[in-house]
Every structure is written in structure tokens, then in C-alpha cells.
Amino acid sequence: YAIRIVVINGPGGIGKTTLLLELRARARAAGRVPVLIDGREIDASPSGFRDAVGPDLLAEGVLLVDGYEHLAPIDGWIRGEFLPGLGVTAIVVLAGRDPPAAAWRVDAGWRRVLAVRELDPFGPAESDDLLARAGVDAADRAHLTALGRGHPLAMALLADAARAGVVPGSLA
How many Å separate Cα 95 from the centre of its chain? Predict the structure, then answer.
């Protein structure tokens, strides 16, 4: 069985959606057909999931699911019925706030095709780089890096505030 499944988890604002959008662009560039759905916007039922995925998920397709924690009621169905019906070269990325259910990790068959990645906050160098790329003055970046604690969404909001002229020292 060659299907590949990646589960990405992390807190809100850590960058899961941004990562999925990048994966969608890379899938298109590689000639694959990406299908991106958001678990927050669909009915958490087998028919709702099938309708959201649509008919475009081909054997060489890439299924990207954001907000997977909202699909917990049908996780067993997705794992037991939907995924085994995909083509053997399909790639599936499930992104949500929670790590995968134990059933994904304890079944030897799923363990062979499953990779679990937790998104961590940025380190100081990555935070500084994000702020620099956002146009934040070097003198302000250390303080904003400490305030944002490596959380990408917080770092982006702090960068916007700094560019808008909010004095970084006043942000505490």
C-alpha cells in the first residue's frame, strides 16, 4: 500500500493553513490535482465529506484537509473506508489542532504510511527573519521576537503594528 498520509498538528495560528496552501501550490506545480477542504465548513458526515472532496481527487491527487479536528465524528470512517478507496499514489495531508487519534498510531498498517508532524513555534532566528522580511527595523525586532514567543500569527500581527508606527516598547 503506497498511499502516503501526513498528519500536521499544532495550535491555532501556528501556520497549518499557510502550509497547506503552499503544499497545494507545489502539488499543482508537480502536475498533481490538489483538493483543499476545510473541516470547519463541511458537514462532518461521510456524505458531507465526499461532497466536499468532490470527483476531482484522482489516483495521483493530493487531498489537503484543514481543520481536521472538526471531522472527529467521522475519523473512523475516513480511516477505515474513505482512505483505503483512494488510489495507491494519492497523498493525504490532515491538518488540525489535535494529534491523530490513537487508532492511527496503534494499527501497524497505518503506522507504515503515516507521518505525524507537530508544528512548533519559531526560534529566535526564525522570528527575527520573519520580522526582517516584513520590514521591521532591526532595532525593534528583538523586543517583538520576545513578545511574539515564536508564534507565527503573533509575529505577523506585531510586524503589522510596528510597520503602522506603534512603538514596540509600548507593546508589553
Answer: 4
φ, ψ (nearest 5 deg) of residue 123: -80, 175
How far apart, in whole angstroms, are the C-alpha atoms of residue 81 and residue 75? 10
CB atoms within 10 A of CB 123: 11
Q: In what order do the strands lie in the sheet with 4-9?
A: 34-38, 62-66, 91-96, 4-9, 114-118
Q: Is 143 left (phi over 0), alpha (psi -120 to 50) or beta?
A: alpha
pLDDT truncated to tens, each residue of the chain (172 aa)?
455 899 999 999 899 999 999 999 999 999 998 999 999 999 999 999 999 998 767 667 899 999 999 999 999 999 999 998 887 788 999 999 999 999 998 988 888 889 999 999 999 999 999 999 999 989 889 999 999 999 999 999 999 988 888 766 666 5
Say how far apart CA 129 and CA 44 lie, in whole Å: 39
